[in-house]
Write a structure and sequence with these properties.
alpha/beta; Rossmann fold; Dna Ligase, domain 1; 6-stranded antiparallel sheet; 10 helices; binds adenosine-5'-triphosphate
């Protein structure tokens, strides 16, 4: 059973909202944006508050809630409700707590938590993205059919850990750990773009959809160790011959812009996923990211969707080249806080929370 945080709204004072999230991932940006919009902020952490927050006075929360472990959050639900908390989820928050526990969390959360089963299950997300009209990398069901480079992804291996490239069945067999569930995808050759969007069901002042409007806030590229630097030592085949296996573990993010003539496609893809999300599970709300590769035919292939704020927005705490043309200095963290503020001031919190 998925808890519906909207049942708690009658007891939430919209004038005294505290924005809370786990201290990790994009939390500095979320707190920084919330402070700019005049909210109180609360950082949730396990053990001592992280010392690195001392280094960022404008990004640190007003207060910390210190937990014994992640599950301990459930013991503090009453206190968080008393503090008028709206929780903002991010990738690590959901990961640490566990998707099922996140779905059960009896607190008001920003966004629609019903997106989670659609996003985290590769079969369901494929169904969603197909319906939205996006092009996905080809899926290979039988490893004996590997006749061109593929990427093998272990399920739940967050951050690309353990993924590998294989060019034929023999390479696949020599590297696969059959004890773990995996997916085989066409390895798409091209440039990687991680597109950051924000969908508002409340505002109509951006790219208009059947309800509300869509913004494109920025784009990044991930820096992945050690695949991105491996060519300094030799080709992947040469490296594998001496026992070095390239990995895809994210260590940072580059700010980017995308060729302007691709922007119509960028918006159409975002529109497709939002519009199809409405009948599928009641709609995706707030920030999301399409993880894509652009081929030399200038086609986007989408290999994943993240239905919340992504770490690739962190280069833009002070705004991106795109938000400069929406509102100077606007980050995704601040945009979340604006949406909560607008909903609180107009009595529409039920439309952006769950
Ligand atoms: P996260 O949840 O952090 O987004 P993940 O573990 O779900 O990561 P993916 O994002 O699917 O993993 O993939 C990790 C990396 O592998 C990507 O950032 C990209 O560099 C590469 N990659 C994934 N799929 C493909 C593909 N089909 N073709 C080429 N490269 C790919």
């Amino acid at each position: 059973m998925v808890f519906d945080g909207r049942s708690l709204l009658p007891d939430l004072d919209p004038k005294r909202i505290t924005i809370a999230t786990y201290c990790s991932h994009t939390s500095l940006q979320i707190f920084h944006g919330a402070r700019k919009e005049g909210f109180r902020t609360l950082g949730i952490c396990v053990g001592e508050p992280p010392r690195y927050f001392e280094g960022f006075p404008l990004g640190r929360p007003d207060e910390f809630l210190v937990l014994k472990d992640h599950a301990d959050l459930f013991n503090h639900v009453e206190e968080l409700r008393r503090r008028n908390v709206v929780l903002v989820p991010h990738g690590s928050f959901v990961e640490y707590l566990g998707a099922n526990r996140f779905l059960d969390l009896p607190l008001v959360t920003f966004g629609n938590r019903n997106v989670l089963p659609w996003e985290s299950d590769r079969g369901r997300s494929k169904q969603w993205l197909d319906k939205a009209g996006l092009q996905l990398p080809r899926h290979i069901t039988d490893p004996r059919d590997i006749i061109e480079p593929v990427i093998v992804k272990y399920h739940g291996a967050k951050g690309g850990r353990g993924f590998f490239i294989a060019r034929n069945y023999h390479e696949f067999k020599s590297r696969i750990d059959e004890t773990k569930p995996y997916t085989i995808q066409e390895f798409v050759l091209g440039t990687r773009y991680y597109l950051h969007y924000f969908y508002s069901p409340l505002r109509g002042d951006a790219y208009r959809l059947s309800k509300g409007s869509l913004q494109f806030l920025g784009v990044d590229r991930r820096d992945e160790t050690n695949i991105d630097e491996a060519n300094r030592l030799g080709s992947i085949a040469e490296l594998e011959a001496i026992g070095i296996k390239p990995t895809f573990v994210v260590s940072g993010n580059f700010p980017m812009v995308i060729r302007e003539s691709l922007l119509p496609k960028v918006f159409r893809m975002g529109e497709g996923v939002v519009e199809t999300s409405m009948p599928l599970f009641g709609g995706m709300i707030g920030p999301f990211c399409l993880e894509t590769v652009v081929t030399d035919q200038l086609e986007f292939k989408v290999f994943e969707i993240s239905a919340r704020i992504v770490a690739g927005t962190n280069p833009y705490v002070g705004g991106s080249p795109y938000t400069e043309m929406i509102e100077p200095g606007l980050s995704t963290g601040r945009r979340i806080a604006q949406e909560i503020r607008l909903a609180a001031e107009t009595g529409r919190l039920a439309e952006i929370t769950s």
